[in-house]
């Protein structure tokens, strides 16, 4: 049995492999972080400032984009400081706090996508009932559940980890993800049980619901007119792309943190960086380019201000079934 340690500080042991490139990596990561904040914030700004985007689908998109900004902010500032520091250390309590925030936000991704799938199902399969079903209260409940359930799951695991005995002080990762479990002398049964339940509640069940819902949508769309099929393709394709991205995010994180692979440390670093690199950038580009209404307002924003004064926007005629928030 490993000897229990009285740990005050934890060391992130991967920086020795990239020490010669740390200033270059700092510049790259800093640029990416600014890009993540700007791209996500731009789409959020467009949705909040245009009333024709104050609908449930766009509210859920705002929630996903805010998630991207927040969990990037959980990782990037500490990562950038570590690049410029001689020693890469953190306290165990700070590590668990980062662990809690990161997985609370990351764990809400698939529940939010499940809520968006239900919203598309009602809009396409039950258009006359859309305004009655997708009310402000319904949307608020979906948002609260999507954030609260992961927070409860992760809180139990974080508290149990805080009480666990540590036999190692070196984190084998670039930040405090599931790698914190490798520090413990023995993982408690409570952590294991809640890990399995969390995987079921936050990943498997939402994924099955999303697949089932989109299957129904595609069947109904295929049997409907061309206009309905076009509407389904325009609104559902971006969500499916983000779903694939989120699924890869989950698989990647679980594989890196839990599966003991004989990869060199540099390879593990590069693989782990993917978790916080592509996904926060992928969402705003997908929704900004693939969602017709957002793309239209984005083009107007990027045009010359003079064009906006010379050619004021024509008020949009809205369908009777749409909902304004």
For the structure shown, list the relevant keywords.
single chain, 325 residues, mainly alpha, three-stranded mixed β-sheet, 11 helices, 3% strand, globular
Please provide a written account of the structure.
The chain is mostly helical and 325 residues long. 71% of the residues lie in helices and 3% in strands. The chain has eleven helices and three strands. Helix 7 packs antiparallel against helix 8. About 4% of the residues have low confidence.
Short account of what is shown:
The protein has a three-stranded mixed beta sheet with strand order 2-1-3. Helix 2 runs antiparallel to helix 3 (92-107) and helix 4 packs antiparallel against helix 8 (226-258). Helix content is 71%, strand content 3%.
- Got a strand count? 3
* Low-confidence runs of at least 5 consecutive residues: 306-311, 314-321
As a whole number of angstroms, the C-alpha radius of gyration is 22 Å
Helix percent reads over 70%
Strand order, biggest sheet?
Answer: 2-1-3
Structural class: mainly alpha
What's the structural blueprint in terms of helices and strands?
Blueprint: E1 9-12, H1 22-49, H2 56-84, E2 89-91, H3 92-107, H4 109-125, H5 130-133, H6 136-163, E3 170-171, H7 189-222, H8 226-258, H9 265-290, H10 292-302, H11 305-310
Parallel strand pairs: 1-3
Antiparallel strand pairs: 1-2
């Amino acid at each position: 049995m490993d000897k229990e340690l009285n740990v005050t500080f934890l060391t992130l042991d991967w920086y020795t492999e990239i020490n010669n490139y740390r200033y270059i990596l700092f510049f790259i990561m800093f640029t990416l972080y600014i890009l993540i904040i700007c791209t996500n914030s731009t789409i959020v700004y467009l949705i909040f400032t245009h009333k024709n985007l104050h609908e449930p689908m766009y509210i859920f998109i705002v929630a996903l984009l805010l998630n991207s900004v927040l969990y990037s902010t959980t990782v990037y500032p500490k990562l950038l400081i570590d690049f410029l520091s001689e020693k890469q250390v953190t306290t165990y309590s700070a590590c668990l706090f980062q662990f809690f925030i990161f997985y609370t936000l990351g764990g809400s991704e698939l529940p939010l996508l499940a809520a968006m799938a239900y919203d598309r199902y009602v809009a396409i399969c039950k258009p006359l009932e859309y305004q009655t079903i997708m009310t402000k209260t319904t949307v608020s409940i979906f948002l609260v559940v999507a954030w609260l359930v992961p927070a409860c799951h992760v809180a139990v695991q974080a508290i149990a980890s805080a009480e666990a005995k540590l036999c190692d002080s070196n984190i084998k990762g670039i930040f405090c993800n599931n790698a914190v479990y490798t520090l413990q002398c023995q993982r408690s049964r409570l952590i294991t049980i809640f890990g399995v339940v969390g995987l079921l509640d936050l990943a498997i069940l939402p994924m099955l619901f999303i697949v089932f819902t989109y299957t129904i949508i595609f069947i109904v769309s295929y049997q409907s007119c061309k206009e309905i099929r076009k509407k389904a393709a325009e609104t559902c394709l971006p969500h499916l792309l983000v779903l694939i991205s989120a699924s890869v995010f989950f698989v990647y994180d679980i594989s890196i943190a839990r599966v003991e692979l004989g990869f060199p440390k540099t390879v593990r670093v590069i693989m782990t960086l993917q978790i916080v690199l592509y996904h926060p950038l992928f969402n705003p580009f997908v929704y900004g380019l693939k969602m017709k209404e957002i793309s239209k307002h984005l083009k107007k924003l990027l045009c010359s201000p003079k064009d906006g004064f010379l050619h004021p926007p024509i008020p949009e005629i809205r369908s009777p079934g749409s909902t304004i928030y």
